[in-house]
Amino acid sequence: MEILATLILAAASMTIVPITEANYPLVAKIYKEGINTGLATFETQVPAWEKWHNAHLNFGNIALLSEDKMLGWASLAPVSSRCVWWRRRS
């Protein structure tokens, strides 16, 4: 029961906000950490705000904050037209 109470209190201090140009530096920091893993994206560099914003849909771009610290983010983008999975058949 203590764990549940702790989770409820933690969730109460969290806020979902839209991703904006003002908070994009926090998104970019998390994005860079994902790029460094080599698993989170095919991108190799964090794009500038305008490029990132233009590549995503105008809705569904959200960040999770807790006491002004960004815990994570999610966004919607159209399917990429890049042929990143193409391989030559033998």
What does this structure look like?
The protein is built from three helices and three strands, in the order H-E-H-H-E-E. By secondary structure, the chain is of the alpha+beta class. A hairpin with a 2-residue loop joins strand 2 and strand 3. It is globular.
Question: Biggest β-sheet, characterized?
Answer: 3 strands, antiparallel
SS element count, helices = 3
The residue fraction in helices comes out at 25-40%
Strand content: 15-25%
Which strand order spans the largest sheet, edge to edge or round the barrel? 1-2-3
Mean pLDDT: 85
Q: What is the CA-CA span between the terminal residues?
A: 59 Å
> Can you tell me the overall shape?
globular
Q: How many strand units?
A: 3
Please state the oligomeric state of the protein chains shown.
single chain
The radius of gyration computed from the alpha-carbon positions, rounded to a whole number of angstroms, is 17 Å
**Helix and strand run:** HEHHEE
Structural class per helix/strand content? alpha+beta
Low-confidence stretches: none
Relevant terms:
90 residues, alpha+beta, 3-stranded antiparallel beta sheet, 3 helices, 3 strands, 34% helix, globular
Overview in brief:
The protein has 90 residues and is an alpha+beta fold. The chain is 34% helix and 18% strand.
Write the layout of secondary structure elements.
Layout: H1 2-12, E1 14-18, H2 24-37, H3 49-54, E2 62-66, E3 69-74
Antiparallel strand pairs: 1-2, 2-3
